[in-house]
Design goal:
2 domains, 6 helices
């Protein structure tokens, strides 16, 4: 058995997301509490986001050439970014807690679907949609759309509305 640990590559994210989802699901199922990742797509999106962060050294372990679970050492975020990051994490989690149909309806309503999307994986489509929403200053609208679809949604407290 040969174990190698090195910087993860973008191509590693889908499989690492699956590994992460399965690991958390197994632990949560055994102990009877809710899963941190309701589906593989959310785990892939979170890990993909971590892979893009400058303050994370995102590693992948390979055992005999196959990806295996590894850690994600990150430095804490600066205090002035914590509130936005918490809101961002909540938005991503709440978005991926919706059904596929609801997620598609949200990005379509906000004009974040493009003709070339059909060939993209679901993870890439939603990651690009979040990136576009951020670039276009539409996170407040995305928040409102997502929260409105949850029974306990809070559209009145939108952390992405300046003011």
């Amino acid at each position: 058995m040969t174990l190698e640990v090195a910087a993860a590559k973008p191509d590693d994210v889908p499989e690492l997301g699956r590994i992460c989802y399965e690991a958390f699901k197994d632990v949560h199922d055994r102990h009877g509490f809710p899963n941190d990742f309701p589906n593989v797509g959310l785990a892939q999106m979170v890990l993909g986001g971590l892979a893009e962060r400058e303050d994370c050294y995102f590693v992948a372990a390979r055992e005999d050439g196959r990806l295996a679970p590894a850690g994600l050492p990150c430095r804490p975020a600066p205090p002035d970014r914590r509130a936005t990051m918490d809101a961002g994490r909540r938005l991503v989690y709440r978005f991926f807690s919706l059904s596929h149909h609801q997620r598609m309806a949200v990005i379509q309503a906000l004009g974040l679907v493009e003709p070339g999307d059909q060939g993209e994986s679901e993870m890439e489509r939603f990651r690009r949609s979040f990136r576009q929403a951020k670039e276009k200053g539409m996170l407040a609208l995305l928040w409102s759309e997502v929260e409105a679809l949850h029974p306990d949604g809070d559209v009145t407290h939108n952390p992405f509305v300046a003011g």
